[in-house]
Amino acid sequence: MSQKFDVVVIGAGPGGYVAAIRAAQLGLKTACIEKYVGKEGKIALGGTCLNVGCIPSKALLDSTWKYHEAHEGFKVHGIEASGVTIDVPTMIARKDQIVRNLTGGVAALFKANGVTSFEGHGKLLANKQVEVTGRDGSTEILEATNVIIASGSRPVEIPPAPIDQNVIVDSTGALDFQSVPKRLGVIGAGVIGLELGSVWGRLGAEVTVLEALDKFLPAADDQVAKEALKILTKQGLKIRLGARVTATEINGSEVTVTFTDANGEQKETYDKLIVAVGRRPVTTDLLAADSGVDLDERGYIFVDDFCATSVPGVYAVGDVVRGLMLAHKAMEEGVVVAERIAGHKAQMNYDLIPGVIYTHPEIAWVGKSEQSLKAEGVEVNVGVAPFAASGRAMAANDTAGFVKIIADAKTDRVLGVHVIGPSAAELVQQGAIAMEFGTSAEDLGMMVFSHPTLSEQLHEAALAVNGHAIHIANRKKR
């Protein structure tokens, strides 16, 4: 006899596990299905983000930045640290322990909230039945009043560079190198490519990033992208734009990459090659032909503004639906869906989802860029405050970058906050909170910011929007 649940969630990544916990908190009998097997051969909750994405990459970014600081940044403070070395396997082991702690934490939260876990592959059948196939091949059917699909995404593979997870790796393989490659190639100058390139570049790898687009970080504000390219290049990343990879050839423990750019066909040889050209939704064997759920032309599950699919009572959230592939977007969608199932009128603001690149300095933004607003014909005023004018940034020897605030020229409403610099993600979140409440630049300028802090540059940028900056020179009005 099949088990019955109010809510069955397929996938225990950020969207799925959050949806399951919130549904259970709202008094709904909830089950969550997960098939991902971790390094230790056991089912691991948390999805890509916790296991092979956001969290492990941040662990490596923090470890390698500390190593870089010991090598390059201590002297200015009067600290002598000679003979500093990195034990890569220890660094990787620390990363793995953090992942274990967090995935175990999700399991504990399931238990605390009364979520029933199922290990195996979930597949939606007709009439909101969900088939669970265990690792041993056994199957069982769950009856659901509501289903939430949160199957996530996987790295995109490209024919010219087939992954072998040895010499040519995807983002998952790049988190597990046991030594520093002398020559590292990265295909893709997006968030993942830049973060992983930075990790291994700080440890001494010669990093070349091959980006097919002619424009660097097109999703970011142009001014921020230009500054990021300058800083990352200065840090040693060779970023080649308009470089299209056409072939790869593995010879023993190295790979020769053929690509074309403005100078014609070129070849370069690397010890490791990371393919980081984006991610695609996971829908393999997810939907039975008669499930009634539709995919759009790009392979995403079709949903409305509230994540409802074409079948009443079936929802989908996170990377498997339209919108940004971000853990925090998936989490909030999971909460919204759980609350709507419980009868609440929840919704989320898709216009204010922050984006972050965890290089050093961090790059982050929320709202619209200056170029997109100009393309829409919106007149804007812009305020920019560099960290070079921040006493707190100077004290920390971390003065690269700036805060940029864009406001509507007619209403003064803040339409975008863009930061490249120390703690950019945290500063942008302050902007997001203010924008959620419809802030004007004047509102931010009238608030008291503690001194000395990095957040004062947000204050200064807000003042600069209307030519009222105190600690930097105001741009003359044309």
Explain what this protein looks like in three dimensions:
The protein is an alpha/beta fold and 478 residues long. It has 3 domains: 3-154 and 280-348, FAD/NAD(P)-binding domain (3-Layer(bba) Sandwich); 168-277, FAD/NAD(P)-binding domain (3-Layer(bba) Sandwich); 352-465, Enolase-like, domain 1 (2-Layer Sandwich), CATH 3.30.390. The chain is 31% helix and 25% strand. The protein is built from 13 helices and 22 strands. The chain has helices at 14-25, 47-52, 54-73, 88-113, 171-174, 191-202, 222-234, 327-341, 370-375, 391-395, 424-436, 441-446, 456-465, and strands spanning 3-10, 30-34, 116-119, 121-124, 129-133, 139-149, 153-155, 168-169, 183-187, 206-211, 238-241, 244-251, 254-261, 264-270, 272-275, 279-281, 314-316, 355-357, 362-367, 380-386, 402-408, 414-421. Strands 1, 2, 3, 4, 5, 6 and 17 form a 7-stranded mixed sheet that branches. A 5-stranded parallel sheet has the order 8-15-9-10-11. Helix 1 runs parallel beside helix 4 (88-113), helix 1 (14-25) runs parallel beside helix 8 (327-341) and helix 3 (54-73) runs antiparallel to helix 4 (88-113). The longest helix is centred in the first third of the chain and has 26 residues, at 88-113. It is globular, with a radius of gyration of 24 Å. The mean pLDDT is 97. Residues 5-334 form the FAD/NAD(P)-binding domain. InterPro entries: Class-I_Pyr_Nuc-Dis_Oxidored, FAD/NAD-bd_sf, FAD/NAD-binding_dom, FAD/NAD-linked_Rdtase_dimer_sf, Lipoamide_DH, Pyr_nuc-diS_OxRdtase, Pyr_nucl-diS_OxRdtase_dimer, Pyr_OxRdtase_I_AS. One of its GO terms (cellular component) is cytoplasm.
